Amino acid sequence: MENRFYNAFDLELLEPPPPSRGSEYRTIFEIHRDRIIHTSAFRRLQSKTQVFLSGEYDFYRTRLTHSIEVSQIGRSICARLKRTSGVLGDDYYIDPDLIEAACLAHDLGHPPFGHAGERTIHRLMKPWGGFEGNAQTLRMLTETIFGQKNGMNPSRAFLDATLKYKTLYGELEDAENHFLYNNQRRYVDWVLGDRDFPLELPPGPARDCFRSIECQVMDWADDTAYSLNDIADGVRAGFLTLESLERWASQQSLDGEAAAHMEKLLKSIRERRVENRLRSRIADFIAAAELKPDANFLSGETHRYRWRLEIDDSARTESKLYKKIALHLVFKSRQLQQLEHKSDHLLTRSFRTLAERYVTRSAESQFRLLPEEDEARLDAAGDEQARARLICDCLTRLTDGAATRLSRRLYDADFQSIVDLE
Question: Do residues 157 and 11 touch, judged by C-beta distance below 8 A?
């Protein structure tokens, strides 16, 4: 049965499709989902930091397990909306395969060492247009996921589902995050059908909140996964104890629902039921999302902009509380700050060495430091900014372990391995 939710505008591909190789049993959204799963970029997420460095312990979440959890939550939101909204049905619904593809892809562009690595690479890339994990995901999907100048030729609906931000780096003053690269304007224009943003959506938060319904579902699924599961990992790792949480809560101005949610979390720790309670909260967060009609400059073109996702205030409050706890007691802990300091040191040294050799070409040395195919791309790059972006690609695709090994090979005189080159 045809799904009336999507039309030719939504299904159009970024580039003309290749010649057909015969009958295709999958929808375009199933193809997107399958192609993401079978990329090396997706596999690398198993060794990239979510909260704790990958490999620390078997039970901590990595970027890969997080992405899988987000995709399951996203599909569940779709299923519930279809059954309960009153406006969706068997021939008019938000496609769960599209949601799954967007959820699986949403962290592909993130570098080694989590958000600390993202901040470091952005600082180093500022002279050449900055770095942002979501912008890097867009670059991969459109240009590099299958090799340089070889993206996955996404449909408009899929690419838009991954676009959490639509503001360019050059449109913001000293931006630290939440932007796209300046040369990605053409993808935003294409997603919008070459329509200009209205005056009420200037660059910045207002424009970035203008998202398709699929992107909104993906984003709430992501919020659900990391706000609940980061707390669970923090408790298991010993960062969040009854004592530390009670002390932190006494220093905050928690009232109303935030105070109630805090007391329930403390109660679950006392009863040793944290993981069970947080798992049950996932279902409540899914149920907190409701479909509401919307009207905007794209709602006449596509159903993807005729609806918005409204989240219950209580779930929003609880999610924000858990994020605040994780930030103050986990991410800002001495232990994680020490690891972030080390990762900043590793990435900074490696980037500067590669930049001197290949970007500014200020180093006298002509040592070959990168794989042959990367060096060929750098030789063919037109200018310094293009070369810097290629070095950025090289570093951000590394796993935590590969980034550490690269640094050791470059600087550690006692590190002898040459068989595991990245």
Answer: yes
Q: Can you tell me the distance from the alpha carbon of 136 to that of 212, in angstroms, rounded to the nearest whole number?
A: 20
Closest CA to 191 of 222, 163, 160: 160
The upper half-sphere exposure of residue 86, i.e. CA atoms within 13 Å in the direction of its Cβ, equals 4
- Residues 8-17+27-208: name the CATH superfamily: Hypothetical protein af1432 (1.10.3210.10)
CA distances, 316 to each of 126, 224, 313, 328, 382 (Å)? 33, 9, 5, 18, 47
Against a cut of 0.70, is the pTM above it?
yes
User: Domain segments of the chain: what residues?
Assistant: 8-17+27-208, 213-334, 335-411
pLDDT at residue 274 in the model:
87
Report the SS3 class of residue 161: helix
* 81-103 b/e (C-beta count within 10 Å ≥ 16 → b): bbeebeebeeeebbbbbbbbbbb
Encoded amino acid at 225, one letter: A
How far is residue 318 from each of residues 130, 233, 287, 389, measured CA to CA in Å?
33, 17, 14, 39
Q: What token pair was written down for 299?
A: 């709602």
DSSP string, 247-305: HHHHTS---HHHHHHHHHHHHHHHTT-HHHHHHHHHHHHHHTEEEEE--STTTTT-GGG
C-alpha dihedral (161, 164, 167, 169), degrees to nearest 10: -120
pLDDT per residue as tens digits for the range 42-73: 999 999 877 655 555 555 678 999 999 999 99
